[in-house]
Amino acid sequence: MNERELIHRQTEAEFAFAQSLEAEGVDPERFMAAWGLTRHQFNLLAHTVYSVNDEAAALPPPLKPLLHAWQKASALRLAA
User: Fold this and answer.
1) What's the confidence (pLDDT) of residue 50?
2) Which one, of 13, 2, 18, 79, lies nearest residue 49 by Cα?
3) So what's the pLDDT on residue 79?
4) HSE of 4, CA atoms in CB hemisphere, 13 A
5) DSSP H helical segments within 1-80, as ranges?
6) Within 13 Å, how many C-alpha atoms sit on residue 68's CB side?
7) Residue 29, Cβ neighbours under 10 Å: how many?
8) Quick check: 27 and 51 in contact, CB under 8 A?
9) CA proximity to 58, closest of 41, 39, 36, 70
10) Which of 2, 46, 53, 62 could be bridged to 14 by S-S, CB 3.0 to 4.6 A?
């Protein structure tokens, strides 16, 4: 994957992640505030959740359990 494709996939992941939160009734800005995330960290989380790149190491430690739960729920939805 070239740099342009990677950036495109990252942007799609960021948008999809925000939409998934909104679909659950969660405002992305409030989500970031509740977890103490910067916009950059929110985007890293989106990239990891949507398997664009694994940036879990750059996430704050309290987010690791949330990330794993999100990935497990996504896997279950895909399997159904």
Assistant:
1) 79
2) 13
3) 64
4) 0
5) 3-23, 28-35, 39-49, 63-79
6) 5
7) 12
8) no
9) 41
10) 46
C-alpha span between 68 and 33 (Å, rounded): 20
Contact 45, 60 (CB under 8 A): no
- The pair of structure tokens assigned to 59 is 């996430």
pTM for this structure? 0.75
Residue 57 contacts by C-beta under 8 Å, 6 or more apart in sequence? none
Rounded to the nearest 10 degrees, the angle between the axes of helix 28-35 and helix 3-23 is: 90
Q: What count of Cα atoms within 13 Å lies in the side-chain half-sphere of residue 32? A: 15
| Nearest one of 59, 11, 67 to 75, comparing CA atoms | 67
Intra-chain end-to-end CA distance of the chain, in Å: 29
